[in-house]
Write a structure and sequence with these properties.
Blueprint: E1 2-7, E2 10-17, E3 25-26, H1 33-42, H2 49-64, E4 68-72, H3 74-77, E5 85-89, E6 104-113, E7 118-127
Antiparallel strand pairs: 1-2, 3-5, 4-7, 5-6, 6-7
Length: 138
């Protein structure tokens, strides 16, 4: 299930396997303190002192809520900018860092950037509704 890329006329196999697709991302529309901070962060275009302060508040809040921290390529987790977030119904077959959230609805937030990877935080926000629960890989 590797993505195919073109490189100067040659076809190459990408090593990035998309576990999360745009179809499985859900809008992060929860009315909570985390989303309030994310909206404030995203309303400021440049990295001002205020934006850095809001990011620090967000990280402290996420730690209190026991969100996990992990790094990964943005093509795998589909969140590129600091402050971007979405909800994801974690399938029962999930492996890797998100496997501890199987059967749950998780919020994934980009909290740090680098040249080839991003830093993310993820935490449970509820249970996956029964009709959306994916038992096996299709």
């Amino acid at each position: 299930m590797a993505a195919t890329m073109k490189n100067h006329g040659h076809i190459m196999q990408s090593s990035v396997i998309r576990m999360i697709s745009e179809e499985t991302q859900l809008n992060d529309n929860l009315d909570d303190e985390v989303n309030s901070l994310l909206e404030q962060i995203n309303s400021i275009d440049s990295w001002t002192a205020k934006k850095f302060e809001l990011k620090a508040k967000l990280l402290n809040l996420l730690k209190k809520k026991r969100y996990i921290v992990f790094k990964g390529p943005p093509k795998r987790y589909l969140a590129y900018r600091i402050g971007s977030s979405y909800l994801y119904d974690v399938p029962m077959y999930q492996r890797g860092v998100l496997s501890k959230f199987r059967g749950k609805r998780a919020r994934i937030i980009c909290v740090g950037s680098g040249r080839y990877t991003r830093e993310y935080m993820a935490g449970v926000v509820g249970k996956t509704p029964k009709e959306r629960l994916i038992q096996k890989f299709e």
